[in-house]
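Good morning C.,

I know you're traveling, so I'll keep this short. The sequence:
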Amino acid sequence: MHVCLFNSSGEMLIQQRQPFKEGWSNLWDLTVGGSAVAGDTSQQAAARELFEEIGLRYDFEGLRPHLTSHFDEGFDDVYLIEADIDLSTLVLQQEEVQAVAWATEEEIIARIQAGTFIPYHEGLIPMLFALRKQRGNITSYALL
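The tokens, ready to paste straight into the viewer:
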């Protein structure tokens, strides 16, 4: 599960993982990510991880993910949220997050290419930015 938080300027909140964290240490990542535990809904996991990692409360009740990606061991629900957050008000989880910053689509892709961001498929990043204000796969519906 991932939550990507965007501001009204069209930037995504990204986090830098701690140097002592196993897996992708010191690399930048999407806003938050994590796994559901037994009994959790996807929405409960998203709310918990958002609060645990950056101290932000958000009500995911009744909210469906924008994207779901399937892989051999399970699936990854991705929630896209727009909110203007003052970074100085966030409480970073010391066990996981060393820093946060706002970044443009181009800045994130440049970080992936430079090896300083988790190596997501580069096509994922433009898709997240494009879908942040809409749902579904088409931009308009024709009446038949």
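Safe travels,
E.
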